[in-house]
Design a protein that fits this description.
9 helices; 7 strands; alpha/beta; thrh gene product, domain 2; 2 domains; 201 residues; Rossmann fold
Length: 201
């Protein structure tokens, strides 16, 4: 049995924090795991910026409500789900992703959640489990699945390397430089070919 796992933002959805940055004009919020590989450092910085600028969950939700999946993303997911099971493993948060899941046809999503106070301020974040992407892959392998994994950034390296078959999808050049041995695809057409070849093995 084969099962797929994939990242969410940058693969099927636009980067939420980048869009918040564009809407608010706060350049530092454009930083993602493509730029800062240590997720705790990145999130601590983001929460500090939100506090400094008095931005709460409503401000971010207002941006998220305007977002749409990447062009062809739902069709790509539908195609995958007609051939194999797929689980989205993301370092986003339930409060961010939930409104967008309907637009993707409600794929299975494992992610984290936020601590929000009564005034709507985001005061903390709660990891469902540390290193969740790689550990999810290892758990699936323990259930006797062959795992195919793909994502676009540094926080996907663990799951890609833990999988039976792993590859990048549209990564930044720095990922390719730092991990030249990991295969890469650059669009959904090539993604279909890669998945088909791996499912047929």
């Amino acid at each position: 049995m084969k099962i797929l796992v994939a990242d969410l933002e940058g693969v099927f959805l636009p980067e939420i924090w980048i869009n918040v940055a564009l809407k608010t004009g706060i350049e530092e919020l454009k930083l993602t795991t493509r730029d800062i590989s240590d997720y705790d450092v990145l999130m601590t910085k983001r929460l500090s910026i939100l506090k400094e600028n008095k931005l709460g969950i409503k401000d971010i939700s207002d941006v998220i409500s305007t977002l749409e999946p990447l062009d062809g993303a739902k069709q790509m997911l539908d195609w995958i789900r007609s051939r194999a099971q797929i689980i989205i493993l993301s370092d986003t948060f339930e409060e961010f992703a939930k409104p967008l899941m309907a637009k993707l046809g409600f794929p299975a999503l494992l992610c984290h959640n936020l601590t929000i106070d009564g005034a709507g301020n985001i005061t903390g974040y709660n990891l469902r489990i540390d290193n969740q992407k790689a550990r999810a892959v290892k758990a699936l392998k323990a259930l006797n699945y062959q795992v195919i994994a793909f994502g676009d950034s540094y926080n996907d390296i663990g799951m890609i390397q833990a999988a039976d078959h792993g590859f990048f999808f549209c990564p930044p050049p720095s990922c390719l430089t730092d991990f030249p041995d990991i295969p890469v695809t650059h669009n959904y057409a090539k993604l279909k070919l890669m998945i088909t070849s791996l499912l047929d093995q």
